[in-house]
Structures are given as structure tokens and as C-alpha cells.
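Hi,

Apologies if this is the wrong queue. I'm a grad student, and the batch job for Glycoside hydrolase family 95 protein from Ginsengibacter hankyongi produced an output file that my downstream script rejects. I'm not sure whether the problem is my script or the file. Here is the sequence I used:
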Amino acid sequence: MKRVAISIFLILSYSLNSLYSQDIITPAAIDQKNFDPSTLLWYKTPASAWEEALPVGNGRLGAMVFGKYAEERIQLNDDTYWSGGPYSTVVKGGYKKLPEIQKDIFEGRPLDAHKLFGRYLMGYPVEQQKYQSLANLILSFKNEKEVSGYKRWLDLNTGITSVQYTAHGVTYKREVFSSVPDQTIAIRITADKPGSISLTAELRGVRNSSMSNYATDYFRMDGVGNDGLVLTGKSADYMGIEGKLRYEARLKAVADGGTVKVDGVDLIVENANAVTLYFVDATNFVNYRDVTGDYHAKVEKYLKDIEGKSYKNIKDAAVEDYQSLFNRVTLALPATKNSFLPTDERIKNFSTESDPQLASLCYQFGRYVLISSSRPGTQPANLQGIWNDNMNPPWDSKYTTNINTEMNYWPAETGNLSELTEPLVKMVKELTDQGSQVAKEEYGARGWVLHQNTDIWRVAAPMDGPTWGTFTVGGAWLTTQLWEHYLFTLDKNYLRDIYPVLKGSVEFFMDFLVEYPNNNKKWLVTCPSTSPENPPKGPGYRYFFDEVTAMYYFTTICAGSSIDMQILTDLFGDYIKASKILGIDHEFSDKVEKARARLVPPQIGSNGMLQEWTEDFDQLEPKHRHISLLYGLYPGNVISVKRTPSLIEPVKKVLEERGDEGAGFSRAWKMSIWARLYDGNKAYKIFKGYLDKQCFPQLFAKCFTPMQVDGTLGVTAAITEMLMQSHEGVIDLLPALPDEWSEGKFHGVFARGAFEVNFDWKEHKIIKAVVYSKQGGSCKLDAKVPIVVFCNGQKIPLKNVGNGVVEFLTKKGEHYNINAK
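Support response: The file is valid. Your script probably expects a header line. Output copied below for reference.
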């Protein structure tokens, strides 16, 4: 049951001349090609589907704006609006069956192990909860069946999306943004002739038809006379979990001229000079265990806080907040005539027409998506960021931790958006709650564990079935990303804060690892294990009826998948370093170091490829979308062209077999993998395929057909890897530069060691750079040309450490100017 409060205020204080000069601008600059094609998305037609709409967001409140005339739709989301309520999926006593499951796996009976796992170790309920669509704002305009001069655009420099057109001799403009300072979505409608704006606004709740009976609505709109409308509602019940989230949403109208009234569920504006609509909402969500928040009081506060503020003040504050993050990084690549076309046309032409700067736009759009869907204090970006119009979204639009959630945050550190990882860090901390219960009850282990999925309620047990649920390293993978935040910031206070999380994950695997019995090398392996989401082709593996999922499928259950071993190699190594940095737990750290030495190292199979499993199994799906076995090359740091050269040809054979295609996230991952292999042209070829096959017109990625933001954000990270890498302890400039990017500028990008870097290049060579040292210490740099370094006018001595790498000492807070000789 939802109610929407629409408060109506008439403001007549604007001077018409001031209004028109400030609010009405023509997009002539677009036609004149006088704009930056690296930061502007624009189109000549409205969105015909949700997947073509333009997103705005403040981390908590999101909207997809269609840009239609006659009847506009603005689809709305709140990041805390999920089905269900606080619940647990922990199943007690499963650890008693673990030895039997391991025995079946080691003795070649994977189906028996699969069935036992499904009966005794699967979490209950088997599925998790769903991210929900909140509402739609429908704006109906009179006399707009036909328009001319139509344009819509999203300006990444401001975070504002706009639409402009002319109807019956009047030019109309709408702009929409989501404000962090004022926690509102603002919709501003103006015209170039007074008294020209007439519209009807309606907030519509969303029914979940598959999870409710027709007679049981989850939302309600109540008229409240001339005071407006209030939309209230509750989340859906699902999988036996009662929907405990309640929300309230309101729409406030501030008009200049004309009349405003409420008629039933409609807000009607007639003959106004301009009107601003403010959308606010709140839920009763406090945290994953507490849903006692006063959502009505929150909404009242949001409205009170904007009362008396001008639209200009609200807009300026929102833009200032947004730009404090977005303006940190610029990427300029060569522009061509194709760069100035509408964005959907640029994408269509990209495979045949040169347009290097489209990569700049994709890079910055990814940063925009992260800024819009992950802010301190919000929920982390989920599979669709914060944008979802479906009550039963693909894969529940939750947190899938066998690649997707991790990929969402790959560009955070290098993209100079480090503080936007706060929601992810908080979620991982919260996951240790049920994660420690699962470790104890289902594995008989210390520490904490998370599998391949979680939701807003932070459940941690295996879900969906053993084919997916035996991925025990989801939490470990997330923990390695928490460590990465330390590498970029060198913040010891932060390291102390996350140390218990890091140690708890290590403790679980120190208890869970078992000795591999099928050789005499005394290897340690995870068991059960899986390589997402690829079934092996080997003895005992065949189609069978899975009683958990009620479908015929292959099992993926195994011992010691390669991704498990690589993640744990990183995790254990990270922990050992953290222990030394903080000077604690030396005895336990020594045990971890000994266990790390016994983890199965990367293996080369009889076909010459890197093995995906400890056993030399064949590939059941040679073109599988996941490339889990290559985690150790990217984002991990186990495989390296420089440190493990014998593994590079086996890695390339895997990539050749998997091909350049796949879902959006697959292609983004492959771009970074090829960048780590120093092949920029190959990475660029995959990028072209991504834009051609797995990208929507507004640059959201597809997962074959549904929208997911992981590929969008993964592409941003991959473009960085092509232009700068720092995982080897060296700031490596232009490591995988494609031929088409002959010149450019990349300013504000961040490197491990807490270094902010600017660099320019021409004719594929660095001409100058600046390194800003945020923490001081040694800086190693590979510019691939002879360089000189100055700080405050003084030449800095350089140490040649081999392979073209130079090293110099830095002081905290100083800038180091680098010039090619």
C-alpha cells in the first residue's frame, strides 16, 4: 500500500526574463559539434524501451528517464526496497555430512556428492530475495502528438539528463537529476513562452503479479484533497519470508504561474510558466537486521529540508557534489567526425568507422554509473546498479559474487573514486554475521564464508543448488578487493578496521582445506569446489535430474578448482602482508604461509591449456561465458607475463578456445586479461565486439539480453588497464595501447602506492606526466622512454632498476613532473 504526497506550492517570484535566460537553452551546440563527445550522450528520439532510457542516481534514489513527449515515464527505484525481510538461510548440522561429500568427490562419484550437498548443506530457503521496482512517475502533456527539433541527452559533466523539443510553436525543456545533498529527484519543466505548461502527473506503484494474489495489492494511492497524494506500500512476501519493508513516496510541485490542483490520483498543472517536481521517498530499512525505521518522518524531513530553497540552489548543490567526484579524472582520445553523431549512431558505426573517443565516453559513463549507484551510506551497486523496472528481475538483481559484484567495483580505485567502495566494505563486514554461522554449522569451521550470492539481508549459505552453491570463495574474493583498497590508499587505520574480516576469511579456509589424495605432492584443496559456472567433462559427470532445482543439469562439483586456488593464493598472501604491516598474529601468519605453499599451483593440461580444475578434465562448454580459471591474471596477481612466463601460452590457448564473444561481463573481463598480456589491439577488438553485440544505446551492458551494470563498469576498468597498470609494483604507462589511440591524455587516474597520475602521449609515446604522491615512499615508473623528473624545480635522482623501470623517492603531498628526454 503506497501513498504519494504531492505538496503544491505556487511561486511567482521569478522574473520571466531571468527564467527564460537561465532555463531555456537550445541544444544548438550539439548540431554545431561544439561539445565534448567524451562526456555527452545524446539522441534524436525518445527511448522506446526501458533499456534505452537514461539513468540518474544519488546512490540511494535512482530513475530511468525515457525522454518522451506527450506522455513521459520516469521509472523510480530506492536501493533498500527488496522483497522479504530479515531472515537466515543457515542450516544446522551440515558439517556432519562434509567428510562423506569429500570422499565421494575424491573417489570419482560427483553426482553422489552433489546430491548429498543439496540435501544437507544447501541453505534454506534455497533462493534469496529480490530487488524491487518502486514506482513510475507518468507525466502527460497536452497537444504534443507531433514535435520538432527533438533532442535528449545526458551530460556526464553535470549528472543531469535533459530533453528538448518544439510543439505548437513552443520550445519545451525538461531536466532531471538525483541529488545527494537534498535526497530528491528533481524534474524541471520550462518553456520559452509564458503560460505554456500544462500537464498531469501521476505516481503509479508496481504490482508483483507472480508473487501476490490479485486481491492483495502491495501499494495504495490515497487522495488527500488539495494537499496532494501519498503513495505508500510494502514489499512482497517471497520464499516464505514475509515482506517487512514499508515505504512512502511523495511528489512536491513548485510552479511559476498557472494553477495547480489535485483530482483523485492526478496532480494537474495548467498554464504555468515553469514547474519543478521533487520526488522523495524512504523505507523503514535501518540495516539487514532492523526494519523499524520511521519512513514517514524521513520523508517529512526531506521535504522540510528543501522547503524555501530555489531550484537553482538545489541544482547547484547537486552538481557541485557530483563534480567533486566526477571531475577528478579526464580521458581524452582522438575525436573523428563520427564522434559528434548521436550516441546510438556512434555505436552502430563503431565497427567500421574510426571513433577512438567513444572509449573515453564509455570510460566516463562507467564512472558515472558508480557515482550514481554507490555512495557512502547506501547499499552497494547490485547487478543492475540501482535501476530496475521488474518485480522479478533477471537473477533477482542482487549481489552475485562469482564475478559480478566484484566487477562492479573494479574501476573504483583506479578511477579515483576510492570512497565509493564504502558500501561494499560495509556489506562484507555484515556478511561475517551469517557467514560465521554458516562456517560453523555447515562446515565445522572457524571464521566466515560466503558463496555465490547474497541480498540486502546478508544471507551467506549456498543457494540456487549445488551446481552454483559450492562456490565457497565468494567472500574470499570480496576480501581481496578490500585489501586492494589498502594498496591504493596505504591507510593503516582502514587496514586495522578490516583486519578481522581478512583474518576470519583465512581462518575458514585454514579449517576447510583438505589434502588432495590423488597424488603424493600433499597439495591442499577446497572440497567441495566449483569453477563458476562451468561443468567439467570427466569421469562421473553426466546429465541428471537435480532434485534441488527440479531440472536436468550437469553438476559442477569438484575438488580444488583453479579459481579457488588462485583466490586463496592472493587471500593468504594479503593476510600475511597485513599481519606484518600491523605487527600482529605472527604465529598464525606463519601457519598461513606454510599452507599457502601447499595450495595447488596453476597446472597445464594435456591439451596445452591452463587447467580449470586440479584434475585434468576436458571442457564441457569450450565457449563458456566465465573465464574463472584466469582470475589469477586479472583481477588477481598470481599469473604474470613477467613472473610466470611459462603460463602465458597456456593462458592464451584458453582465451583462443573461449573466443572473443560472450556476455557483456565476459567481454569486459577479456579486455582486461588481454591488457595484462600487453596486447592492446586484441583488447580493442573485443571492445568493438562488446559495443556491437552487448551494449545498449545508453552504454549499459547486457548479460546476453538483460541489462547488467557489471560489463559497463568492467569496461571502464579494462580501459584503465590498457593505459596504465600498477599491480606489479610499478606504474606502467601505456602497457597495452591500441594503434588507434595514437595520442591522448589521461589525468587523475590512481595507482597502487597512493599515487595520482597524469600523463599525455603523442605518436604512441609518453611526452610528459605528473605523479602526485599522497603517502610518500618509493615510486617505480615505466614510461617506455627515457625521462627526467623534477619536483619544485629540482631534478630528482633516478635509480635504474632494469627493464626500463626507474625508481625515485617521493614525499607526501608533493608533485613530480616527468618529461621525456
